[in-house]
Amino acid sequence: MSNIHDNEIISYKVNLKNQKIIIYTEYQKRKITKKTDVIFYDVLVHFFENELPGSTILDIDEHNINQFIRDNSKLLEQRKDSCWPIDYNTIEELTRELLKEQYSYYIISSSYGLNGWVLAKSYEIISNN
């Protein structure tokens, strides 16, 4: 896989119907520009914040569903009645379903600007050079 550390986020596309997110990035060093796409597949839900021009990726880390539940307990409680991220009655039921469906929790860290997370089944980094 390609390295995305210090890549600037140029734009991103969320395709709800096809459950895919593509983050388009560029890395510039001296007069060379390298373009790299980060593609998340089978996306259930995502949360991005602090979208700013010049947003720069620090890293993308994969975590387990239990970490997702711990990190987002308040958000899950607030949005439960809206069937977010799915319809569930208890946190235990939600956890079992997410584990059964083999979702992973991807945290996008930034050194500047956009950060957040994606709950998806997989992702890949593709160099476009």
Describe this structure in words.
The chain has 129 residues and is of the alpha+beta class. The chain has one domain. It is 19% helix and 48% strand. It is built from 3 helices and 8 strands, in the order E-E-E-E-E-H-H-H-E-E-E. The strands form 2 sheets. Strands 1-2-3-8 form a 4-stranded antiparallel sheet, with no helix packed on it. The protein is elongated and about 55 Å long. It starts with 7 loop residues before the first strand and ends with a strand. The mean pLDDT is 95.
Q: What best-fitting shape do the alpha-carbon axes yield?
A: elongated
When the domains are counted, the total is 1
Q: What is the helix fraction of residues, given as a range?
A: 10-25%
Written as H for each helix and E for each strand, in order along the chain, the element string is EEEEEHHHEEE
Give the strand content. over 45%
Discrete helix count? 3
